[in-house]
Write a structure and sequence with these properties.
Blueprint lengths: L1 H21 L4 H7 L9 E4 L4 E3 L3 E2 L6 E7 L2 E4 L8 E6 L3 E7 L7 E8 L2 E2 L3 E5 L5 E3 L3 E3 L4 E5 L3 E2 L6 E7 L2 E2 L9 E2 L1 E3 L3 E3 L4 E5 L3 E2 L6 E7 L2 E2 L9 E2 L1 E3 L3 E3 L4 E5 L3 E2 L6 E7 L2 E2 L9 E2 L1 E3 L3 E3 L4 E5 L8 E7 L2 E2 L20 E6 L20 E7 L17 E7 L1
Parallel strand pairs: 1-10, 14-17, 21-24, 28-31
Antiparallel strand pairs: 2-7, 3-7, 4-6, 4-8, 5-7, 8-9, 8-10, 11-12, 13-15, 15-16, 18-19, 20-22, 22-23, 25-26, 27-29, 29-30, 32-33, 34-35, 35-36, 37-39, 38-39
Amino acid sequence: MLRFRYVFITAVFFSVQAFAQLIPTPFWTEKEKGPVSFAFADVAGVNPSTMVVSDSITLAGYGGTYNATCSGCEIERNGNGTWSTSVSGFNMGDTIRIRLTSSASLSGTATGTVTVGETVAGPWTVTTRHPYPCATAEWGSIPHGSSVTAYSASTSNACASISESRTCTDGSLSGTYTFNVCNNNCNVAPWGWVAHGAGVTAYQTVTANSCAAVAETRTCNNGTLSGSYTNASCSNNCNVSPWGWVTHGNSVTAYASATSNSCAGVAQTRTCSNGTLAGTYAYGTCNNNCNVSPWGWIAHGTSVTAYAGPTGPCVSQSRSCSNGSLSGSYTYAGCTACNAASNTTNMCAGYTYDAGGACISAAGYCASGSGTCVISYYYGTGSGSYCGDAYGPGPQPYYLLQCY
C-alpha cells in the first residue's frame, strides 16, 4: 500500500511540472519587467555635430510605472520638452523620444541606447552624411580629401612656379588658381622664348639660292620645339646674268660697257642683298682699248697695219689691241713705196749704198713699187768700199737701187 502511494505521488509531481511548462509566464511577472520590446528608427545623412531627435514610440505592455535611462542620449516623455538622461514615471501608453548629438566627423556614427524598466530598446544609430565632392568645370567632380594641381595661367616660362595644390574638403576646394593644365613655353636660341602653341620659321642655312626650299616651321609644344633647323633667318642669293649665282653679302665688279678707254672709269661694285643685286651696270668684264701713237685709240679686239719704215721697201705687220696692249713692234702707220716712171728717173732716194764689201741684192727693196727692182750703175768717182767691177780696171761705179 505504501509503495503504491509513493509511485502515485511521484507521477503526479512530474505531471504537474510538465503541465506548468506549458502555461505562459504569469502576467504579473511581465508587469514587473517593463514594456514590450521596441526600437527607434535609425537616422542617416545628418550634418556633423547636429542635435538629432528620434521618432516617437508609444510604450505598450502590461500596467506598471517604470524608470527610463539612456546611454549616449537624452529622454523626453510625452513630448513635454524636458530632456534628461534619466526620466521616471513611464506608464503604458506614454510616448518616448530620445535625442543625441551626431558625430563631429563626416560619415561618423553616434549611438544611443534607452532602457525602460528592464526592457532595453535596440540601439539607435545616427550616421552623419558622407562628405560632399567638389564640383568643378575644370577638373570635374573631385572626391572629398583628394587634391588637384592648379595653375594661375595656361602657359608659362616655368609652369612649376605658378602652380598650387587645391584640396577638396566636403565640397569646398581650397586655393584660387583656375587652370587645370599649364604648358611650358620654349626657350630656344636664337628665338628666345616661344609661346606654347606658337611657331617660328627656321632655316637650314643662313643663305640659299631659295630660302623657301630650306625652311621649316618649328612649333612649341609644352617646352619642346619641333623640327631641327637652327637659323632664324635666311637671305636669298642673287641670280643675275652674266655672273650667275652671287651669294648674299658678296659683291661683283660690273661695267657700263664691254670695252672702254678706261675700264676703271666705267666700273661699279654690285652687292647682293637677299636676292637683289645693287647697281645697274650689266657687263661682267671690260677690256681696255689701246692708246698708241701714231694711231691714237684703238678699240680692244681690233687691229691696225704698221710698217717698219716710212718709205719703201714697205714691210708691214698687223698689230692687234688686247685689253690695252697692242701686239707687234712696227711703229709707222704708213709707208711710201718707190714708183719708177722710167728706167732713168725716180731713183730711190736714200738708197745709194756703199756696199761695204758686200753687194746687196735689190730683191728686198722697192718691193712694193710698180716695177722690178734691179741693180743699175753709172761710172763716176767716189770713195769708200765698192762692189767688184765686172768691167775691169777703171773708175768704180756707184751701185744704185732703181725701181722700174
